[in-house]
Amino acid sequence: MDNPSLFDQLPAYALGALSEEERAEVEAFLASSEEARAELRTYEAMLAGMATLVPARKAPAHLTEDFRKRLAATAFPAAPAIAQPRIQSRRQWNRRTPLLLGLAALVAVAIGVFLIARLVVSDPEAQAIQNILNNPAAIRVTLNAQQGATGNVSFVALPDSKVGVLVAELPQLPDEKQYQLWLLNGKNPDSAGVFSTTQPIRQVLVNLPGPPGDYQAVAITVEPRGGSPGPTSAPIFVGTLTQ
């Protein structure tokens, strides 16, 4: 086999997917070529990095042997004595390429699923928002625009909870301004926090000063960044709380 063919075998060697004869040929080549050893180290580092992205699990005892049998089944029958060895090896490698590519695709999909699952589990705020929005017992209020305000706002909360969700599609404010949410019960409005809009539709988890049943209405004003003790401007959105 010539050097290019042996270089082509390095990924399969790193995966442990070569026959005894092929592995012996590659190892002899590695012993005489620093360039080949460097390339092999690159493949091994890539495989090691991929392994750290998913939880380690012990493979079934039969997995390695079954994999080698499947690889052997894809190889061409032994060539006659007059056949050229290097052509035979290239054909074997070409037959194995789809299998190795399929294995790499399965690994990539598994890594992607794991990363997505880890992201969802590691974001308790997003999970809390979905729990409230999907609860059929939740109170849902659509806020009406005031004084020519533009956007869409709804408020969702559980009757006996002090946590709610504000779903807001509002224009982005200057850096020195923020939106502030208020709950009204006929007395002084109680603040339920400030928020900014950095994306078209924003779902905000808000801590309420009391359960929704203690209030008659919910409103939004535009306040200086950080919020105000009381509203300093007329509300731009108002909604009535109903049980």
Description:
The protein has 243 residues and is α+β, with helices and mostly antiparallel strands. It is elongated and about 85 Å long. It has an eight-stranded antiparallel β-sheet, with helices on one face. It has seven helices and eight strands; from the N terminus they run H-H-H-H-H-H-H-E-E-E-E-E-E-E-E.
What's the N-to-C terminus distance?
A: 80 Å
Provide the number of structural domains: 2
Note the main sheet: 8 strands, antiparallel
- Give the spatial strand order of the biggest sheet: 5-4-7-8-1-2-3-6
Radius of gyration based on Cα positions: 32 Å
- Note poorly predicted spans: 82-93
Essential attributes:
single chain; 243 residues; alpha+beta; 2 domains; eight-stranded antiparallel β-sheet; 7 helices; 42% helix
Summarize the structure.
With 243 residues, this protein is α+β, with helices and mostly antiparallel strands. The protein has seven helices and eight strands.
Which helices and strands appear, and what pairs or packs with what?
Layout: H1 3-8, H2 10-15, H3 20-32, H4 34-51, H5 63-74, H6 85-121, H7 124-133, E1 139-145, E2 152-157, E3 163-169, E4 177-184, E5 190-195, E6 202-207, E7 217-224, E8 237-240
Antiparallel strand pairs: 1-2, 1-8, 2-3, 3-6, 4-5, 4-7, 7-8
Helix pairs in contact: 3-4
